Amino acid sequence: MNKGTKITLAVAIASVAGVLIFWKRKEITYVVKKAVDKTVKVVTEIVLDAQTEAYLDTLHPKFRRDAEKFIKEARKEGHYVYITSAFRSFKKQNALNKAGKTGAKGGQSYHNYGLAMDINSSRPTINMKSDKATWAPIVKIARKYGFTWGGDFSTGYDPVHFEKRYGLHHTKLLAMKNAGDVTDGFVNLG
Ligand SMILES: [Zn+2]
After folding, report:
1. Integer angstrom CA distances of residue 141 from 41, 78, 82, 169
2. 22 CA to middle of ligand 1, Å?
3. What are the start-end ranges of the E strands in the chain?
4. How far is the CA of 154 from the centre of ligand 1 (A)?
């Protein structure tokens, strides 16, 4: 073997080794990345605040399931949504009506059947004063779960309000309640 051949052979061996090391590195990088992804997944598990959890507990079980999914998805999307009002008794509804805070009397609001909730977002701040465009990303998620948005009400802009009617007008819900068609205080929705 002359000197030229030796050098060529050495370069060839070095190249193969280099490729192998590179390939191995890539594999190691991939494994590390996978481990990191796993960690991130655990960290981003959504835990709701105590106030929202407490309000969720006051809602109709069927509504509650979708409400929780909606709020958790909104939080995953970066909107720190929390509940400010949920179930409301007829008595409380009448008091709010008397105070001029709502047009609905006891029995006329979906809140009275555990089928409505009011929400805000604290990060970023989104509330009653926010316009339709600001609410849009949250409303988009709500619609996925079948919620009717108070921002669309012709009776008055109520963007914090989200309800589900399950095809039943509040007069029908009242009739069912009065007829005793209820379980644990909530109208049977089937
Ligand atoms: Zn409301």
Report:
1. 21, 12, 14, 24
2. 60
3. 81-85, 116-122, 125-126, 148-149, 161-163, 182-183, 186-187
4. 14
pLDDT digits (tens, 9 = 90+) for 83-124: 999 999 999 999 999 999 999 999 999 999 999 999 999 999
Token readout for 160 is 């914090």
What is the whole-number distance in angstroms between the Cα of residue 185 and the centre of ligand 1? 20
Write the pLDDT tens digit of every residue in 11-55: 666 665 555 555 555 555 555 555 566 555 555 678 999 999 999
pTM to 2 decimal places: 0.76
Q: Which domains does the chain have, with CATH numbers?
A: 3-44 (no CATH), 50-187 (3.30.1380.10)
Report whether 32 contacts 87 (CB < 8 A). Answer: no
